[in-house]
Specification:
With about 140 residues, the protein is mainly alpha-helical. Helix content is about 50%, strand content about 10%. The protein has four helices and three strands; from the N terminus they run H-H-E-H-H-E-E. A hairpin with a 2-residue loop joins strand 2 and strand 3. The longest helix has 26 residues. About 20% of the residues have low confidence.
Length: about 140
Amino acid sequence: MNRNFIALAIIFSIIFSVPDLVIADDHSFEPWTFSNTTIKDKVPIETVETLSPPAYLMKVSINFYRTFISPVGGNRCRMNPSCSAYALEAVSRYGFVRGYILTTDRLIHESEEMDLAPVVYIHGKQRFSDPVGDNVLW
C-alpha cells in the first residue's frame, strides 16, 4: 500500500476523532529541532464561521501535517508553492470541493508538471513553479 495513502488515512482519523484541534501559531509547539525554513508559505486558518465544515477540517488536517509530520520527514516537495501550501490556498480560494479537486490533481500530476513548469530558485534550491491560479479552468 502507498505510504502517502497510509499517512493521509492516519491524519484524517486523528482529525475526525479530535475536531477541535487547531494549530493557531507556527511556534506554539516544536517537539523537534528544525529550522523555520521547513515551515514556509503558511496560509493562516480562517475562523470557523468563514469556512464550511469540510473545508475547515481539510485545512486543520493540512496544518497538522505541516506542523507535526512534515518536519520529521523533511522537505520533499520540489514544487513552489509546496504541496501543502498549494492545498491550503486552493481550499481558501475555492472552497472544499474545488480545492480538493485541485489538490488531488496536483498530487497526481506533480511529476509531469516538473517537465512543463518554469524553474525558480528559492533559497538556492531548484523548484518548479506551479501556482494555484495557473491550474484553474473555471
